[in-house]
Write a structure and sequence with these properties.
Strand content: 15-25%
Number of helices: 11
Oligomer: single chain
Strand order of the largest sheet: 8-7-6-11-9-12-10
Largest sheet: 7 strands, parallel
Number of domains: 2
Helix content: 25-40%
Distance between the termini: 47 Å
Radius of gyration: 20 Å
CATH architecture of the largest domain: 3-Layer(aba) Sandwich
């Protein structure tokens, strides 16, 4: 670890952290293999413990000691900056003191991620990064063994996703599905029943499904607006719904995932 004091917001060494509110700029800036940004000492530590490789750290002066202990064994530059520089570079107030530029690890295959899983969460075409993070946190806290994300799903390693998940994106095994058919085939090869949570005429109440649930289940959650696609529903072995009252037809996707994971994990 090399501590470097930087006071110029235009310093090119800070380019990994520049304009983080613009995802298009982030894509342009990423090196081969890609980067993601871990925010806060707690999240950075979880990423490092999970084996992810840091490229650099930008930290405000008062947070240096916490980062020093995390990065002590890593040969990376740690850029120590004034608060105003951190905000000018990132485009927002960096309240949690530190941002780390991390190399993205290679994603494993669907088959390897679900090989020993009893309960899998599938996130399909969910566009809100906060919902992705909250769903991962529910998966970690409620006993899911793995998470799969569809090709059109938002990035679990986007800064907001990681932050909302409280770093649990590094805790639960996950990967991105290359396509629906081959991924569902991989689940069926493992005798994992694909189970869609959807408002559909085939749907049975969650409590009824839980009573006779298959030994291994993959719970499919659809996007915030349109729900699961016709393709995903057609591939589902089962369709379940959470009965609602009070004139409400459904829950937020992360809340629904938490309810269903809790119910399935109880059996």
């Amino acid at each position: 670890m090399e501590l470097l004091e930087l006071t110029d917001a235009d310093d090119p060494r800070l380019d990994d952290y520049r304009g983080l509110t613009d995802t298009a700029l982030r894509r342009i800036a990423e090196p081969e293999g890609g980067l993601y940004i871990a925010e806060s000492a707690k999240v950075i530590e979880r990423a490092v413990v999970a084996g992810h490789r840091p490229r650099s750290v930008m930290v405000q002066r008062r947070w240096v000691d916490g980062i020093r202990s995390i990065m002590a064994d890593h040969d990376v530059p740690v850029y120590v900056v004034p608060d105003a520089v951190a905000e000018a570079v990132a485009g927002f107030a960096v309240h949690r003191g530190a941002l780390a530029s991390m190399h993205r690890p290679a994603l494993p295959s669907v088959a390897s991620v679900v090989a020993d899983a009893r309960l899998v969460l599938i996130l399909a075409d969910i566009g809100d990064h906060a919902n992705i993070g909250a769903a991962f946190r529910a998966a970690a806290g409620l006993g899911a063994d793995a998470v799969l994300v569809s090709p059109g799903c938002a990035d679990p390693l986007y800064r907001r996703s990681v932050r909302v998940s409280m770093g649990t994106v590094f805790q639960v095994p996950w990967t991105r599905m290359p396509d629906w058919k081959s991924s569902v085939d991989a689940l069926r090869d493992e005798a994992i029943a694909t189970t869609a949570l959807a408002l559909d005429e085939r749907a049975v109440p969650l409590r009824d499904f839980v009573r006779e649930r298959p030994e291994r289940v993959a719970l499919m959650m659809g996007s915030e607006g349109d729900g699961l696609s016709a393709e995903a529903l057609a591939l589902a072995d089962h369709v379940v719904t959470i009965p609602m009252s009070g004139g409400v037809d459904s829950l937020n996707v992360a809340s629904a995932a938490a309810v269903a994971l809790w119910a399935l994990g109880e059996e």
